[in-house]
Amino acid sequence: TTTELKEDLKDFYTIATAKDTPIIWLLTDSQIVDDRFLIYINALLSSGWISDLFARDELDALLLSLRNEMKAYGKNADDFEEQKAYLIQKFRRNFKVVLTFSPV
């Protein structure tokens, strides 16, 4: 379901950013059971960000987990836009998508 997909994507963001762990998401065409999945997949592939994925408190908690790392790299950890840009950059570095489609 779309709800399950969104929860999985939240987990991917946490693992790839707060835990700094590389992820390869292998997704087959048979797993895309709802056309709305494609909206999320497209957002991931095009920008690395899904605007309605996190509630504000969830996003704040994720950004908070990156504050010390941002400061260590000389980033402004108090600026929301810079925090979000850093989150997306780190996510895109650690998260890869492999789409497989049947030729039939």
TrEMBL record:
Residues in coiled coil: none
Gene Ontology BP terms: microtubule-based movement
Gene3D superfamilies with a match to the protein in the record: P-loop containing nucleotide triphosphate hydrolases (3.40.50.300)
Record GO cellular component, one term: dynein complex
Pfam families to which the protein is assigned, alphabetical: AAA_8
Source species, domain of life: Eukaryota
Domain Dynein heavy chain AAA module D4: 3-104
GO molecular function, one term: dynein light intermediate chain binding
InterPro entries: DHC, Dynein_heavy_chain_D4_dom, P-loop_NTPase
Name of the protein: Dynein heavy chain AAA module D4 domain-containing protein
Species of the source: Aureoumbra lagunensis
